[in-house]
Structures are given as structure tokens and as C-alpha cells.
Amino acid sequence: MAPASLSPYGVFHSTCLSILSTVIAMLLSLSRPTSLILSINASRKTIERSYNSLSRSTRWPLGLLDETRQRLNEEKEEKVKRTKEEAEELGRELRYTQQVVAGELAGWQDLHEKMGRKAIRDLARSMLIHERTTLEGMRRAMRKLKVVPVTNPVPTMAVDVEAKRKPRLKHPVIEPELQGEIIAVLRMDEEGPSS
Questions:
Q1: How many CB atoms lie within 10 A of CB 83?
Q2: Tens digits of per-residue pLDDT, 22-38?
Q3: pLDDT: is 179 or 114 the higher one?
Q4: pTM over 0.85
Q5: Which residues make Cβ contacts (< 8 Å) with residue 120, sequence separation at least 6?
């Protein structure tokens, strides 16, 4: 196992961001059918208003501005025709979008759980490698400095029977002048082997 070149938390963060961007894209695709339905409803209202205005325009007195009235009616009929075509196109797009979104959502249900578990597993594995590397560096520093753990001294007055049987280990005692050497060795381990 070799230590990862990037920080385990940085890799986990970027993985979570990619999962988030996938979720946002999924939510946008789920909102598309709703916006198409709203557009279709708006088109139907526009068609209805155009039909109402066509029926009112026939109430003009005969002979007065016949050419203008005819031209306006033709424009309104053309607008109604275009709006109907747009509504039909939106209906086809809605059917297609619903099928695509349903397929994508079914695939996403299976995939997002696997992606999350893999990200957490990779984080744990990376942290384990990182901590093992740090521990090995500390062990090398202790071997180089020949630091030996010291046991607790047993009090002379009331001696506890259990304390006699199992002496507890205390933190190793390091002389102040050796602390600088330990820090130097640890820094050399962090920087990697010198060539």
C-alpha cells in the first residue's frame, strides 16, 4: 500500500462535489416536464384568446374597413396555427422527456448508493494508509533516537495488588535536547526519502 499523493479529505470532498453536481442535474431534468406542461397550458390559453378575438372581429359593420378586418383575421388565424404547432411540439417533447427522465431516475436509484459507499470506503482506506505511514515514521524516529518506554514507579506505602501484577506503561520520557532531533526526523519522513 502506497500513500496517496492527495489528501484523503480532499479526494472525498471532490467526490462529494461530483455526486452533488449529478444530483443537481437530476433535479433540473425532473423539473423539465413541469415547465413543459406550463408552456403547453400557456399556449392553450393563447389559442383560446385568439379564437375569442376572431369571433368578435366578425361583428364589425359590413363594408367598413373590410380589407383591414380580413388582414387582421388572417394574421390571427396564422398565429393560432403557429401556437397549435408549438403546443403539439411541446407535447411530443414532454412525452420524450418523461421517458428519458424515468430511465435516468431508475439508473440513478441504483448508482447513487454505490457511489456514496465507494466514496466512504475510499476515504477510510486512504486515511488508514496515511495513518500507517505516519505511525511508521514515528517508529523510525523512536528507533533512531533509541527511546524506551518507562513503566510507572510503584508507590512504597500502600501497594495495590493489581498494580504489582500489571505495571502500566507511561509515555516515553524524552530529554529536551532530543526533541529537536525527533522533530527533524519526522520532517524528513514527511518530505520523503532524499535521493
A1: 19
A2: 888 888 888 888 888 88
A3: 114
A4: no
A5: 12
Q: Which three cell numbers stand for residue 143?
A: 528507533
CA 153 distance to own-chain centroid: 55
Give the CA dihedral 153, 157, 158, 160, nearest 10 degrees.
Answer: 20
* Residues 108 and 26 sit within 8 Å (Cβ to Cβ): yes
Please give the Cα distance from 27 to 100 (Å, whole number).
Answer: 13
Inter-axis angle of helices 8-57 and 66-145, nearest 10: 170
Q: Which residues contact 126 (CB under 8 A, 6 or more apart)?
A: 4, 8, 11, 12
What stretch of H or E contains 149? none
SS3 for 162-188 is HHHHCCCECCCCCCHHHHHHHHHHHHH
Residue 151 β-bridge partners: 169
Q: Which residue has the cell 406542461?
A: 37
3 state SS of 87: helix
CB atoms within 10 A of CB 16: 15
Q: Are 116 and 19 in contact (CB under 8 A)?
A: yes
**Which amino acid does the sequence have at 117?**
R
